[in-house]
User: Which sequence fits this backbone?
């Protein structure tokens, strides 16, 4: 600062009693933070500052010199020379009421006072009364950012006219003091940052190690790495407290360890998985990376992440996936998964077999990743497509029946999740047929019970008309009821393995058994004509059901309802087909065909066409009724 400015400060020092600016430099938080970062408020006196004060007193001949640091409440003497009242080996301080240096900080400018007793403000300062400060010359000590921390000053207990040479000498020495303060400030900031970095590093769940490039000497480990490996700072590999193994079980030598390779050979290792076994027997799975770092001095840095729990979770998930995949392959259901764009993600072996059967092996081999509709285009307008759209729209599971190209009935259970679809297709053909058969048989049972009562009534009446005595009537009625029971056993369609199947039945025997409640071979009205033919269980029960229906109608309305009627049954085998003709004739009046088919006719159609995959046709002639049925021999022949 120029000498004229110094003189100006001398003639017009700041007035402590005047109104303070909006924010005083003394209480400025930025300045106070910079002050505390120097560490000078708490540190012991430093020799370098003491030498500066001694030098200042020798050069200028002034008896007292101070390095003073000022906070919001006090001034601390970092070093002093000539102030006998204070112990030179410990920091000393005064309140701001006993401070001239505070004005150097507040104005951030040098201050020169020749005789404080003559100054209206400074004359009342405690330093004048208690410390004998009369003349004062001080210059600011600033941080590198320009924040005033305190003052370097000269003090005389007598009035003194300060010279420019004294000011320049003080300023030159102050520059050295200021440089040392700045250096200490930077060192303290660096230490603080280092401590902060260390605290963060030690809190990290990742182990970090630093080694000297070239030698491999271990420079540093964070707390996590020390816990992982049980290794203290020292040279890598001198005595490792653990053994390392590859996932295949091969033990690593020292030279193969990642940080050693990076430090000694400059290699870069990414995500090397190792199993670490410590001396206490505990072990963990680690994922280690290491690489050389360009720094001064150059080092190698390694990171280690404990993935033991992750590996366990992966293994559990893989085990679940294996079990699920095994279930998907052993189930008889066809399973398919499609993404939100309808591309096939997964299809189990049953599903792939159905795709292969429907569109060919070449298309099936390319199905994964392709659109479902490109793979099986015939499903675009199907019930399955409608159900998929409904499941996506509502976000709830949906069930639908889909008829396959092979005619099988597939029940599709569709489960939407986050736009994707998982569908289980179960072949329920037999279940549906069985349910239909149960319904039919239930209705047939009701129908048959009604017919049984009607037939019993007819048998009673017919027997009574022809019997001459009660005993004869009872005997005839008993025989007819027994024949009806035998016929019922033959046509029982609900027989099970537990009920001792009758096995093969000869067609002629079957016909006589069914017709025995109403007629026999001695009846001139009946003619049976056909070759010997053994029927299996399916053939016998289904044909018996049909013949029984026809016989029941014949007893009620046709050839067996009067003495003049004729019933002729003829059968033959032609080109793998059984043809059986039922011909009724001799009706005395004109027959009128029914206006609609009853349950019996529908039952015959269902049995011949549905169960035996055959054909059935009828014709009404003036004096009777004719029917022809044709069924494949391979379904009925025993």
Assistant:
């Amino acid at each position: 600062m120029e000498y004229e400015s110094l003189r100006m400060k001398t003639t017009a020092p700041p007035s402590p009693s005047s109104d303070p600016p909006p924010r005083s430099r003394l209480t400025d938080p930025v300045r106070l933070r910079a002050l505390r970062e120097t560490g000078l408020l708490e540190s012991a006196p430093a020799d370098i500052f003491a030498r500066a004060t001694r030098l200042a007193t020798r050069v200028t001949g002034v008896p007292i010199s101070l390095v003073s640091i000022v906070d919001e409440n006090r001034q601390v003497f970092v070093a002093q020379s000539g102030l006998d009242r204070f112990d030179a080996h410990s920091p000393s301080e005064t309140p701001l009421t006993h401070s001239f240096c505070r004005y150097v900080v507040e104005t951030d400018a040098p201050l020169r006072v020749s005789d404080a007793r003559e100054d209206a403000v400074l004359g009342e300062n405690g330093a004048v009364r208690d410390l004998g400060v009369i003349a004062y010359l001080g210059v600011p000590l600033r941080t590198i950012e320009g924040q005033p921390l305190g003052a370097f000053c000269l003090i005389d207990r007598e009035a003194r006219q300060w010279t420019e040479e004294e000011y320049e000498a003080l300023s030159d020495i102050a520059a050295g003091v200021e440089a040392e303060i700045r250096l200490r400030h930077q060192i303290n900031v660096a230490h603080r940052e280092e401590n902060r970095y260390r605290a963060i590093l030690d809190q990290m769940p990742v182990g970090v190690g630093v080694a000297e490039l070239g030698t491999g000497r271990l420079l540093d480990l964070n707390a996590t790495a020390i816990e992982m490996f049980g290794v203290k700072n020292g040279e890598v590999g001198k005595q490792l407290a653990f053994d390392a193994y590859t996932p295949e079980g091969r033990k690593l030598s020292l030279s193969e360890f990642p940080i050693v390779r990076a430090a000694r050979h400059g290699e870069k290792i990414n995500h090397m998985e190792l199993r670490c076994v410590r001396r206490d027997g505990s072990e963990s799975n680690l994922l280690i990376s290491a690489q050389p770092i360009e720094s001064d001095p150059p080092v190698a840095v390694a990171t280690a992440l404990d993935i033991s729990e992750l590996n366990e979770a992966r293994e559990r998930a893989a085990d679940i996936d294996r079990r699920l995949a095994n279930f998907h392959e052993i189930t008889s259901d066809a399973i398919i998964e499609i993404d939100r764009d309808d591309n096939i993600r997964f299809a189990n072996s049953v599903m792939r077999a159905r795709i292969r059967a429907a569109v060919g092996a070449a298309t099936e081999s390319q199905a994964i990743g392709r659109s479902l509709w490109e793979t099986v285009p015939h499903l675009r307008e199907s019930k399955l497509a409608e159900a998929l759209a409904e499941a996506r729209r509502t976000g709830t599971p949906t069930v639908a029946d889909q008829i396959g190209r092979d005619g099988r009935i597939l029940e599709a259970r569709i489960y939407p999740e986050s736009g994707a679809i998982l569908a289980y297709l179960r072949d329920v053909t037999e279940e549906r047929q069985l349910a239909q058969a149960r319904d039919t048989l239930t209705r047939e049972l009701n129908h048959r019970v009604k017919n049984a009562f009607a037939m019993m009534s007819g048998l009673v009446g017919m027997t009574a008309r022809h019997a001459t005595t009660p005993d004869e009537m009872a005997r005839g009625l008993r025989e007819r009821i027994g024949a009806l029971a035998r016929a019922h056993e033959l046509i029982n369609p609900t027989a099970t393995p537990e009920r001792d199947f009758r096995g093969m039945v000869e067609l002629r025997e079957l016909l006589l058994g069914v017709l025995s409640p109403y007629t026999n071979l001695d009846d001139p009205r009946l003619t049976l004509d056909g070759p010997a033919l053994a029927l299996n269980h399916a053939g016998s029960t289904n044909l018996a059901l049909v013949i029984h229906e026809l016989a029941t109608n014949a007893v009620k309305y046709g050839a067996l309802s009067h003495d003049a009627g004729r019933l002729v049954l003829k059968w033959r085998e032609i080109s793998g087909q059984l043809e059986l003709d039922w011909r009724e004739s001799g009706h005395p009046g004109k027959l009128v065909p029914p206006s609609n088919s009853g349950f019996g006719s529908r039952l015959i159609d269902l049995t011949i066409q549905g169960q035996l995959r055959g054909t059935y046709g009828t014709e009404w002639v003036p004096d009777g009724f004719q029917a022809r049925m044709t069924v494949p021999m391979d379904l009925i022949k025993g």
In short: DSSP finds 19 helices and 24 strands in the chain. The first helix runs from residue 3 to 11. The first strand starts at residue 64 and ends at 70.
